[in-house]
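Q: What would this chain look like folded?
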Amino acid sequence: MEGKIPVVNTMVTNAFELPGHRITKNLGLVRGIIVRSRSIIGNIGAGLQSLFGGDITLYTDLCDRARRDAYQRMIEEASNLGANAIIGVRYDATEVMGGITEVLCYGTAVMVERERV
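A: My prediction, written as structure tokens:
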């Protein structure tokens, strides 16, 4: 990874532009994919939480971890391409089979430079 500028979290956006910056190169689509399953113990715990209503924190935490992991994988792919920003970031999730879900985070890796005022 020598010579490559790592993507920083402040340079990742779901918009298609970064205010104050100009896109100098489009490096293409980058993605991060994670496939997660619920454990038997987690299902039992979540089932007990659902009896009382409200936020089912076991599932909330599982979903949050899956999205964070997919996001991090996308950033790593962009960094490997030499990107210093990612635009147009989106998430998608698909149930592969009962209890197994794929989470995809994707966007466009770009090189940007600060606009001169």
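The longest helix spans residues 57-81.
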